[in-house]
Structure formats: structure tokens, C-alpha cells
User: Which sequence fits this backbone?
């Protein structure tokens, strides 16, 4: 870069400005281990999330001899989604859409109640980054040992530790990618086929891609995903207001900070400037600089500072969950609002109401949905045929659906054309009657071509209704509106 004077001329007398990059280089973060109630909560949530992710595909759920026995299965080949006793068919995708909407509103609800708790505790990026950071501590040692190792030249110790660490990283990443594909096929079978080299190529490529992305996001990118890549912090920032709980450094109590006041100087605040809050922060920020996008509200700095406060005989809570409104109240010497009141404010209740209404609606639909279904498509060309005796025949493609894991006896009947009779293409025409009875195989769609025959006197267009009724103890019936065409009446 050319160094110019104020007139735009090359400035030979001054040192050249250092070249500037397009972005700030990443500063490695080596968060220090800390114990405390929020750390223990993070442990519990992390263990729960990882256990759910890795164990779920192995859970079995008996659905009878005709359906898979994997508790949670996305069966793309047969276009089904199984979740314990619930089986979702493609035409019921609104259940999945409803669940996604609930997940979105759930995020709003959590943010409204307890700020960025999702980011700090349950987001997959947070959970896996935390896991990788524990591997760092387990192999390299705590913060200071990691600093030392990062700076020291490559020797036997560093090479050994790096190799060990990267092996564990790879194992975690591979397990993460490997567990994902088990949601899409019978887990024990796919597991065996995968290691025997007999699985489909898409399984290997999916595991490869997910292993690489887990490694990249968990080992390299870490806090940069939260600070620069993820849009959610920006959305959440827009949702937070002066009543939202955020991790707050109480500067009115902590400042002026310092280890020891100079003789004769004004007394110092409660912050002893030990830097422990920054040392434990997984995103490497200093919360004393105020609320920041990089703060995922994991509250580990609260654990850290509370330890310091206890050791130095000061009241805990120099860093604490607080709202901006309460910060002002506390600054003015007034008591803070009770946390329960902060959590259950009107906006939270509105989100909770909407979230619950959608959930109850889905549950109601799930509880009352029919496990049979029928779809009818009429032949358009020709719209009808006249048989030799003058009867009018229309043809339909009828799809009988049995959504139960057992074969079911069903009856198809028709209303709307007086005297009409029906038969299926695999039945003799002589057997035509007012209904067709078939056994529909378990968990399947049975496409049947159906002919409807009306008396010769039938004329014009008729609205007809096909009704499919299950003839077993569970019963149930569904209808489908269609059309019957006949020649126009002669004047
Ligand atoms: S841990 Fe507490 S006392 Fe130590 S620097 Fe942070 S705010 Fe100050
Ligand atoms: S500042 Fe505190 S709450 Fe925010 S990310 Fe760092 S440790 Fe977690």
C-alpha cells in the first residue's frame, strides 16, 4: 500500500502503513475449565442432546409384521416418516410443517423468556464446539497448557498430542455423520452393511460430507460460526428488548476495576480485574465491554465471577442474568424484578399461547385422523362409453389407502347415480354390484381401475361420491367427490 501525504503525494518521510486485510484474523480461543451451576447445566444439556442424537436410531418400536420396527425412521424409499407410534404419509406433510413451525415459534418463545439460551446451551454448534473444547482440555491440558503447546516448536510432545487430538476429532466427526444416515434406514442393517462395504454409495458420500463439515465447524470455525456465520444472533438481537434477560456485567458495582487501589486514591469497585470471566468464555469475549453479538449467554462467566466474588468475600452476582431495565433500577439502588416475572411477561405468554395452540391442533388432528384414504381420478377421454344394451359406463382410477400396519378389509360404494353398479377391472363384469369389497395390504396404496355402469336412461352430468369404509372393528370411512358423465337428454 502506498503511504500518501494529505495532498495525495507519496510520503517518503513517514513509515509505511501496515497492509490491511479484508477481515480481522481469528484469534485462537482457549477457554479455561470452570465449575459452577451453569457449567453443570451445560453438561446435563450437552449429555442429553448427544445421547438423543446418537441413541435414537437404535431404539426399536414394534409396529407389527408389515412395518419397520425402528422408533424414528425417515423412510425415503417408501415415503414415510415414523416416529414411535406416529406414521406420517406424504399427503400428511402438514404435520411435519406444523412441527417445524412449532420449532420456530419455540425458538422465539425461549428467546423471549430467557434470552439466547438456545445459543448458549442447546444449539448443535454450541454442543459440538463444547465437546471439541473438552477434547482439547483432555489431551492438551487446560488453557495455559494449550497456550504453551500452541507456541512451542514441533517436538515429540506436540506431534503426539496433535495426532491424538485429531484422531479423536475425526472419530467424533465420523460418528456424527455416521449417526445421521442411521435415521434413514434400519440402523443395525445399515451399520453392518456400511462396514462390510455393501451400503449404497449415497450413504458413504453423506457420511464423508458430514464428517468434513463437523470437523470444519467444530474443530476450525467454532465461535466464528456464532459471531459471523449464523443469522440467528442477528434475528435474536432484533427480538431482545429492555425486558429480555441477558448476561450483564454490573459496571456500576464493578468499576473502577483493579487489583488494589493506589494509596490515597478512590476505592475500587468489586471487579478485581482477574480476567477469569474472559478466560472461561467459549467465544473469547470480555463481557465487561457490554452486551455483544458474540455473547451466546452460556453464563460460564457468571460461574467464574461468582467464584472470584466468594474468594474475595464479596456478594455474588457482579456478572449475572439481568435485563437492561433492571440494570437501570439496580444502578439507581432499587431492587431487581423477580426472575419469574421477567420470564412470564406478556410477549412470552403470547408465544406460549400460539405454540400451544398449534401443538394442540396437531395433536387433535393426529388423534382424529382416518387411517384409510381414497383418491379418485376419472377418465376424461372418452368421458363415457355406451355399451351395446345402451348402458353408460365411466371409468375411474381409484387409489385405496390402508395406513395401518395390517391388511384391512374395505368396501367402496357410490352415491349420486340411481341404479349404478360397479366392478373392478380384475373382477368379471357380471359381478358388478353397488359396492366393491377388497383386502388392502398393510401400510400401502392399492391402485384399482373401477368401472361404473349406469342404466340406459341415465343422461347428463352427475355429481357422485365414492365412499371407502373399513369393515373391521376399528372402522372408519372417507369420501371423495367425483363426476359421472352420460349423453345429454334428447329433446
Ligand atoms: S471474573 Fe469478575 S472480578 Fe474477575 S475480571 Fe471478570 S468481572 Fe472482574
Ligand atoms: S460472555 Fe459470558 S455468557 Fe457470553 S459467551 Fe462469554 S462466557 Fe458465555
Assistant:
Amino acid at each position: 500500500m502506498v503511504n500518501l501525504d494529505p495532498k495525495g503525494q507519496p510520503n517518503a518521510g513517514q513509515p509505511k502503513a501496515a497492509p490491511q486485510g479484508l477481515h480481522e484474523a481469528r484469534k485462537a480461543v482457549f477457554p479455561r475449565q470452570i465449575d459452577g451451576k451453569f457449567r453443570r447445566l451445560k453438561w446435563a444439556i450437552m449429555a442429553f442432546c448427544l445421547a438423543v442424537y446418537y441413541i435414537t436410531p437404535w431404539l426399536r418400536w414394534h409396529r407389527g409384521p408389515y412395518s419397520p420396527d425402528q422408533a424414528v425412521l425417515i423412510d425415503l424409499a417408501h415415503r414415510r416418516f415414523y416416529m414411535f407410534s406416529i406414521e406420517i404419509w406424504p399427503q400428511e406433510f402438514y404435520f411435519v410443517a406444523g412441527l417445524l413451525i412449532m420449532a420456530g415459534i419455540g425458538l422465539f418463545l425461549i428467546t423471549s423468556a430467557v434470552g439466547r439460551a438456545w445459543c448458549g446451551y442447546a444449539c448443535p454448534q454450541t454442543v459440538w464446539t463444547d465437546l471439541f473444547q473438552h477434547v482439547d482440555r483432555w489431551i492438551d491440558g487446560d488453557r495455559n497448557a494449550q497456550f504453551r503447546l500452541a507456541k512451542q516448536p514441533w517436538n515429540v510432545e506436540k506431534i503426539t498430542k496433535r495426532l491424538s487430538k485429531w484422531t479423536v476429532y475425526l472419530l467424533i466427526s465420523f460418528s456424527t455423520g455416521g449417526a445421521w444416515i442411521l435415521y434413514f434406514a434400519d440402523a443395525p442393517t445399515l451399520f453392518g452393511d456400511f462396514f462390510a462395504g455393501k451400503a449404497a454409495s449415497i450413504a458413504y458420500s453423506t457420511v464423508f460430507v458430514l464428517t468434513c463439515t463437523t470437523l470444519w465447524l467444530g474443530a476450525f470455525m467454532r465461535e466464528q460460526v456464532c459471531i459471523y456465520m449464523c443469522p440467528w444472533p442477528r434475528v435474536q438481537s432484533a427480538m431482545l428488548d429492555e425486558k429480555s434477560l441477558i448476561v450483564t456485567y454490573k459496571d456500576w458495582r464493578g468499576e473502577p476495576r483493579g487489583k488494589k487501589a493506589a494509596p490515597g486514591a478512590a476505592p475500587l469497585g468489586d471487579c478485581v480485574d482477574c480476567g477469569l470471566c474472559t478466560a472461561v468464555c467459549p467465544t473469547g469475549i470480555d463481557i465487561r465491554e457490554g452486551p455483544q453479538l458474540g455473547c451466546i449467554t452460556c453464563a460460564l462467566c457468571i460461574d467464574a465471577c461468582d467464584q472470584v466474588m466468594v474468594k474475595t468475600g464479596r456478594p455474588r452476582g457482579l456478572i449475572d442474568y439481568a435485563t437492561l431495565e433492571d440494570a437501570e433500577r439496580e444502578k439507581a439502588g432499587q431492587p431487581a424484578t423477580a426472575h419469574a416475572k421477567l420470564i412470564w411477561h406478556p410477549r412470552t405468554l403470547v408465544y406460549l399461547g400460539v405454540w400451544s395452540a398449534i401443538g394442540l391442533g396437531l395433536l387433535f388432528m393426529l388423534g382424529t385422523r382416518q387411517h384409510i384414504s381414497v383418491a379418485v381420478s376419472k377418465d376424461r377421454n372418452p368421458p363415457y362409453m355406451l355399451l351395446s344394451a345402451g348402458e353408460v359406463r365411466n371409468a375411474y382410477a381409484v387409489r385405496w389407502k390402508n395406513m395401518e400396519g395390517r391388511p384391512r378389509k374395505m368396501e367402496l360404494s357410490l352415491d349420486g347415480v340411481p341404479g349404478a353398479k360397479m366392478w373392478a377391472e380384475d373382477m368379471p363384469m357380471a359381478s358388478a354390484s353397488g359396492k366393491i369389497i377388497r383386502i388392502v395390504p398393510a401400510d400401502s396404496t392399492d391402485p384399482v381401475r373401477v368401472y361404473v355402469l349406469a342404466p340406459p336412461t341415465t343422461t347428463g352430468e352427475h355429481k357422485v361420491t365414492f365412499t371407502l369404509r373399513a369393515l373391521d372393528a376399528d372402522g372408519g370411512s372417507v369420501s371423495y367427490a367425483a363426476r359421472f358423465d352420460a349423453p345429454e337428454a334428447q329433446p
User: Anything to note?
Assistant: Residues 241-337 form one domain. The first helix runs from residue 37 to 55. The mean pLDDT is 90.
